[in-house]
Amino acid sequence: MTEAEAAAELERLAQEIAHHNRLYHRDDAPEISDADYDALVCRNQDIEAQFPHLVRPDSPSRAVGAAPEGPLAKVRHALPMLSLDNAFSDDEVADFVARIRRFLRLGDDEPVALTAEPKIDGLSCSLRYEKGALVLAATRGDGTTGEDVTPNARTIADIPPRLPEGAPDLFEIRGEVYMSKADFAALNARQAEAGGKIFANPRNAAAGSLRQKDAAVTRARPLRFYAHGWGEVSQLPADTQLGVMRAIEGWGVPLSKDLEVFTDIAPLLAFYRGIEAKRADLPFDIDGVVYKVDRLDWQRRLGQVARAPRWALAHKFPAERAETTLEAIDIQVGRTGKLTPVARLTPVSVGGVTVTNATLHNADEIARLGVRPGDRVRIQRAGDVIPQILENLTPDADRPAYDFPDHCPQCGSEAVRDEGEVDVRCTGGLVCPAQRVERLRHFVSRHALDIEGLGLVHIESFFRDGLLESPADIFRLHEKREALVGRERWAETSVENLLAAIDAKRQPPLDRFLFALGIRHIGEVTARDLARLYRSWSALTATIDRAVDVRATFEPALGEPEKKTRQRRDAAVVAAIETPNIGPEVANALLDFFEEPHNREVLAAIFAAGVEPADVVWETKDSPVTGKTLVFTGTLETLSRDEAKAQAEALGAKVAGSVSAKTDLLIAGPGAGSKLRKAQELGVETIDEAGWNALVAGTR
Ligand code: IVH
């Protein structure tokens, strides 16, 4: 894989995974199976491991789930609710243990005890008990902010309203809300009879039942709960994972019946095989086994990477498979003109779930599989609805291959695939109605401007009738109040509500506004990075304008090969943008957008319609090294490098590999050489490992 291919693939994966995260976590409506999802995440990780410098600011390896939305109140978690890293093979489990040993610098004969328990397919929930009483129940949401489901949780029999005498003053029990397979089937049968919503699987049924505005609905649903951990606590009743879990059980909260501790890998893997063997007979869906380091002092030292703790691992089961016929390949057109093929299948039951669609990703995937409509295919799914095609069972070299469209099915413009790209894109740009509608939809979507009451149906019908053509028109809709009121199903109050919702978004946060523009490669995380750094639209665009000049006036050196010039120009552009995590691809995309006169016009029109992105107000964290750049050098004696780096990052510091004028602090162990000398020359403050440990201890 070339670097350009890797970058393109990482971009595609970031977008695709974010999309599936939203469908799964926010909408409870997944379109692909868990196994497919895991495959995407794995592929992303593999490519990131091969090309670490291409890791994107919006990389899926950095985020958990999707921010919640809907009518329930949002609550910030006292401690983030994390996700788990996945393993699919015995080797990966052995690697996990080896990593822990290295990180903690354990001797070879020091046993690492791990707990093991089934991974239930439900949704995680945090139960906060203060002075013994349940005061808050919250869903995970994006890991930082969840939804308040307290009244709903109170209806679940497994969740005690009070903990017994002797429980700590403050204790957050975390665990899984789930529905048994039998209860799920019975619920769907009742729903079908009553003409209600049919759930895709027990997990969706549990999520849909818990996240209800009216707790009476939840009460009528057969939800269960089991604990698998904890969040903020005033005191821990034991110093091992198992000890704390048994204490929680003693307070009357159910745990998994299968929960054991192992110090050797062989019996641990035998436990996994045993659970896998009885999987079909268990009364609830599980999708793997979770391992956790038993010693809590080690858990604390191991800490977390991005979205998941270093001390836990989900060992997943392989996916389920079936055969069916590929009936048709539909082409969908996205916001950036990307043509995405979707496989329509003859309905088939896979592990008890009816499957009708499969993802095909892109033209290469179709070519790799060699599938055409009419072929028999083997498909795979694990937990959810749209699976993946594994293989074509009726390959026939004589029949012509599937012809990927070279014209957009929506607007008829030419569809092209640029060099080094995996996707075919419609070149229609703003001529293409599909792209224009998708852009408008993106502009108002939840994670962009979040204009309530302006959903896809409305965007499409307003667009069709000429009420909306570009984002600025949204902020001019009040001029068309009369035309709106006259529309079918739009009463005066709903029009007023919509106009008020629009008015409420005239000063959008800078990061949301940037994200809303739908600039290629500028996802939510990159938009946030840019907004945090520049803090105002004018400061940001001033920098971009300078960078546009740098790029436009860049001169090749005499006799220099084109590739070299491009590299130097990219480096100059990246330097001009001056934003950590932003590489040439993202920087160039940003400049391309602002260089394009049409985009300038669109922006000018948005501002003329009375929109003013709000400045970012600075957030501060409390530590002497927050926002500072640190360098570690020499031998560290009590910590591994990884642990030291993790500590620094947890305090909001950046760790660099070399000393420069930008270095704020050097931590030098014995044997430090050139970096220490350089720091002394530059007058950089220097401390030793003991000084560092004292600094970290002082922040606890
Ligand atoms: S531990 C910090 N244990 O799986 C670790 N999670 O894929 C937090 N899950 O968000 C999770 N069974 O909702 C843990 N025995 C178990 C679990 C479990 C199911 C869920 C949980 C978590 C997700 C991660």
Q: What would a concise description of this structure say?
A:
This protein has 700 residues and is α+β, with helices and mostly antiparallel strands. It is built from 25 helices and 24 strands.
What does this structure look like?
The chain is α+β, with helices and mostly antiparallel strands and 700 residues long. Helices cover 39% and strands 19% of the residues. The protein has a 5-stranded mixed sheet. Strands 16-15-14-17-18 form a 5-stranded antiparallel sheet. Strands 5-4-7-8 form a 4-stranded antiparallel sheet. Helix 17 (510-516) crosses helix 18, helix 19 (537-552) runs antiparallel to helix 20 and helix 19 packs across helix 21. The protein is globular. The structure holds 2-(butylsulfanyl)adenosine.
The ligands bound in this entry are: 2-(butylsulfanyl)adenosine
pLDDT averaged over residues: 89
Q: Please list the strands of the largest sheet in the order they lie side by side.
A: 2-13-10-3-9
Distance between the termini: 45 Å
Integer-rounded radius of gyration = 27 Å
Proportion of residues in β-strands: 15-25%
Global morphology: globular
Keywords for this structure?
5-stranded mixed beta sheet, 24 strands, binds 2-(butylsulfanyl)adenosine, 5-stranded antiparallel beta sheet, alpha+beta
Fold topology:
Layout: H1 3-26, H2 34-50, E1 74-76, E2 86-87, H3 90-104, E3 114-120, E4 123-130, E5 133-139, E6 145-147, H4 150-153, E7 170-178, H5 181-194, H6 202-210, H7 215-219, E8 224-233, H8 241-250, E9 260-262, H9 265-278, E10 286-293, H10 296-302, E11 304-305, E12 308-309, E13 312-316, E14 320-333, E15 339-350, E16 353-359, H11 363-369, E17 376-381, E18 388-392, E19 415-416, E20 425-426, H12 433-444, H13 456-464, H14 471-474, H15 481-485, H16 492-503, H17 510-516, H18 524-534, H19 537-552, H20 562-577, H21 584-595, H22 597-608, E21 629-633, H23 641-650, E22 654-656, E23 665-668, H24 674-682, E24 685-687, H25 689-698
Helix pairs in contact: 1-2, 17-18, 19-20, 19-21, 20-21
